[in-house]
Write a structure and sequence with these properties.
Elements lengths: L14 E2 L6 E2 L13 H10 L4 E6 L6 H14 L4 E5 L6 H11 L16 E8 L6 E8 L3 H9 L5 H9 L2 E7 H6 L1 H18 L14 E7 L5 H5 L1 H8 L1 H10 L3 E5 L1 E10 L5 E11 L2 H9 L2
Parallel strand pairs: 3-6, 3-7, 7-8, 8-9
Antiparallel strand pairs: 1-2, 4-5, 5-6, 10-11
Helix pairs in contact: 2-3, 7-10
């Protein structure tokens, strides 16, 4: 696997935070305004390119951390005309955390709510599916689901979330397919709130919904290995279980698509002595992980 080198000591001049454009200098570890790590800003500044924010969002326990970690793992090996090269060792921390946990037959720990503890990735992705090869600097943080929920209820609580949502070109909105099947109304309303927040942060209500001005939105039903309905026909699954958000996407996001994904080939439910249930992965077998990102790159 190839990893581009990144020297954090080589940049002494003042740079602007990649998230909120606040000024940062060489001694800063984090942006004082939004708490974005300085290493991600310096990584992008070194390449002198415009970052392509593709944000993975969704409620708590939707599987965002596992999805992002496995997505980077698949990108590094290359799949479906996409090949990724992580830019800096920091971009590998999430991949390392997720793969190590799954190989140990457990899911990784939940992402902490504190934004200065979130892991980020910066990956240079080459798309060779068309005659003209496309290359984007894919930048994404591993948001905590609780932080997203708090920001939706009290905008401004997490400046990193608001600034990144404002700059995002494409969203991968992850939904736990089992939760959607069993508690559809709750998941439907959360997606509605998130869609409304995206529209508000990007000022879409004042636009004419032109395809060139609205973000691409990929709805991804995760853990589809345990929900055959979602895996068989994700679009119909969304229409049946999330009718409000289906209509919202039709009216507000001209570029949207629906996918299903899973990262394990099989899993088991285990109970402890107190009767609490938890699911354990038996082996890694990603399915449908790369397709939403490929679609997002093609449509943003």
């Amino acid at each position: 696997m190839t990893t581009e080198t990144y020297d954090p000591q080589s940049t002494d001049e003042i740079i602007l935070c990649v998230c909120c454009n606040a000024q940062m200098d060489a001694s800063d570890d984090f942006c004082e305004v939004c708490h974005t790590p300085a290493e991600i800003t310096r990584s992008i500044a070194k390449r002198n390119v415009c970052p392509h924010f593709i944000s993975v969002v969704g409620p708590s326990n939707a599987g965002k951390t596992v999805y992002l970690g496995l997505l980077l793992d698949v990108l590094c090996g290359g799949a479906r005309f996409l090949k990724g090269v992580p830019n800096g060792a920091f971009s590998l921390r999430l991949q390392e955390q997720v793969v190590a946990a799954l190989e140990d037959r457990r899911f990784p720990e939940k992402t902490p709510n504190e934004s200065d503890l979130w892991k980020w990735l910066h990956c240079v992705v080459t798309d060779s599916s068309k005659r003209k090869v496309k290359q984007v600097d894919f930048v994404a943080p591993d948001f905590a689901g609780e932080a997203i929920a708090m920001e939706l209820e009290h905008p401004g609580t997490y400046p990193a979330v608001s600034h990144i949502v404002e700059r995002t070109a494409a969203f991968l909105l992850l939904c736990d397919s089992i939760e959607v099947r069993d508690n559809g109304a709750r998941e439907d309303l959360f997606a509605m709130k998130l869609g409304s927040y995206i529209s508000q942060q990007q000022g879409l209500s004042h636009l004419d919904k032109s395809q060139d001005l609205t973000p691409a939105v990929a709805v991804v039903f995760t853990k589809s290995d345990t929900c055959p309905e979602a895996e068989a026909n994700p679009k119909r699954f969304m229409e049946n279980n999330m009718p409000r958000f289906t209509d919202y996407c039709e009216q507000n996001f001209p570029r949207h698509e629906v996918f299903s994904a899973s990262v394990v080939g099989s899993s088991v439910l285990m109970s402890n002595s107190s009767g609490a249930m938890s699911r354990l992965p038996l082996h890694i077998q990603p399915r449908g992980v790369i397709e939403p990102l490929h679609w997002a790159i093609q449509n943003s």
